[in-house]
Amino acid sequence: MTTEFALDLRLARRKAGYTQGDMAHLLASHQSAVSDLELGKIRPSLEQIIELSLIYGRSFESLFGELMAERRKLLKKRLSCLPDLGKQTAHTFNRPASLERLKRRLAKPSKNGGA
Prior knowledge:
The protein is mainly alpha-helical. It has helices at about 5-15, 20-25, 30-40, 45-55, 60-80, 95-105. The protein has two domains: about 5-60, 434 Repressor (Amino-terminal Domain) (Orthogonal Bundle); about 65-105, no CATH class.
C-alpha cells in the first residue's frame, strides 16, 4: 500500500480529533493495528473499510481512491491477457459481452480520483 493512502488515513483521524486509541476502540482492534494502517504496512479488512467510511463520513471511493486505481490497473492488465475461451457453451454465452462491459468500466476514470 502506498504512503499517500496511509497519510490520508492519518490526516482524516487527526482532523477528526481522534487518537489511535480511539480508532482502535471504534474498530475493535489494537492501537498497533491502527498504526500499521496509517503506516501502510497493512490493508484494512472489508469490515474496517465500511467502518472507516462511516467514522469519517466519506465515501469508499474518496477514502480509498488510490486503492481503487491500483486495482483498476491490475484488472486491466489481467483482462488484456485473459486466455481465449475456445469452444463456447450455453453457460459462457454472455462472456464476450460481459468482458466488453468490464473493459469499458475499467477504462472510465473514477469520479473521485480512483483513475
